[in-house]
Amino acid sequence: MRKNYAELGFNDKWFVLLGIPLLGFLTPIIYLGVRLHREPYYPWQALVFSIGITTVFWLGNRWIIILLRRKYPQLTQSRKRIVLTAVLMLLFVMVVANFNGISPPFWKAEPVPYPDLNVLGVINTLVIAGIYEVIYYQAQLRLSIQGQEELRHESLQAQIRALKSQVDPHFLFNNLNTLSSVVHDDPKKAEQFIQQLSKLYRHILEMQETTLITVKEELDLLQAYIYLLKTRFGESLRVSLDVPDACHEKKIIPFALQILVENAIKHNIVSTAKPLTVRIETIGDRLVVTNNLQRKLQPVASTGKGLENINGRIRLLHHPEMQYIVTADHYIVTLPLFPAT
After folding, report:
1. Distance (Å, rounded) from C-alpha 335 to C-alpha 314?
2. 179 in any annotated domain
3. Is Ribosomal protein among the key words of this record (predicted)?
4. Which of 11, 177, 182, 251 has its CA 20 to 30 A from that of 198?
């Protein structure tokens, strides 16, 4: 029976083992009116014959169902399959019901009337086929929903990978520029920079398939990134973190903080005279990134890809988007935090 699970939509072992004797037992009671406690009494011969004929009808119709589901497995072929199944079942019932010698002689005697096996076979077949068909369609619907969910998940992962791929070249390009400015002046520092860059990039590659990471993991990545930035800017860049431990297990979009810090550096003056200060803290269920606003004299052309990259990934997860506020002195971005579970 195991190899037929796919066609039936479920393991019908116990359904068959319990269904045949139960239907066989009930058939004489329903169709002949026999009773266990009063006349006309239920003859044991009727039970044996009823279970036997039910077994033939059940297993024969079951075989027809399996055969045609194998031949026409697609849902688009359902109409053709059902019509052919009904025709073959009817022919099968007629052949069995009218086979010479199958009529039980003990049912012809009073007080137990002889049933019409054609009617009996058709009714029992409708019951059996109806149960199998309902269970089959439920199984197909469940598989369809599961397949749609898996497809949606795969589509989501593909879109997230595409958005992440926009970050990596920009990230690598900026750090190679930093390295080129350090390597001649301080080779030892350049060596440490390369080690940190390698460490950070390894983490980025490991998280390519990750949709969300914990706040703690994101802060660890940010610390490594800040080390690279401090190599270039020194005390001209000041980053403060005020994220309580209670928020560390919540989830966040990977590399979001890196993008926001990088965005602040791109559009603002970073110098000893005008240090750029970035503060990262939590307010409610959001992570807030604030930097002092000191725009460059020659504004840098902005494509908006950094912020849209973050928002694009958040939208795919059906969560409230990132928000940002521009005041006279500060640029403030709030990121949603996802539940830990």
Report:
1. 9
2. no
3. no
4. 251
Query: Among residues 99, 93, 11, 31, which one has the least CA distance to residue 58?
Result: 93
Distance CA 261, CA 110 (A): 95
Burial label for 266, CB within 10 Å (0-12, 13-18, 19+), is middle
Query: Do residues 117 and 99 lie in contact, with contact meaning Cβ atoms separated by under 8 Å?
Result: no
Domain containing 207: what range? 188-336
Per-residue pLDDT, 87: 87
Give the C-alpha separation, 327 to 341, whole Å: 35
Three-state secondary structure string covering 124-159: HHHHHHHHHHHHHHHHHHHHHHHHHHHHHHHHHHHH
Count structural domains, the chain: 2
49 lies in a domain? yes
Q: pLDDT class for 110, splitting at 50, 70, 90? A: very low
**In one letter, which amino acid is 262?**
E
| Residues 323 and 332 sit within 8 Å (Cβ to Cβ) | no
Which three-class secondary structure state does DSSP give residue 252?
Answer: strand
Measured CA distances, 227 to 193, 197, 208 (Å)? 8, 9, 22
As a whole number, mean pLDDT of residues 263-269 equals 89
**Are residues 122 and 194 both part of a single domain?**
no
Domain termination residue (choose one: 148, 172, 200)? 148
Torsion angles phi and psi, residue 148, rounded to 5: -65, -40
Tokens 């001209």 correspond to 236
Q: What is the pLDDT of residues 200-240, one digit of tens each?
A: 777 767 766 677 889 999 998 888 888 888 887 889 999 99
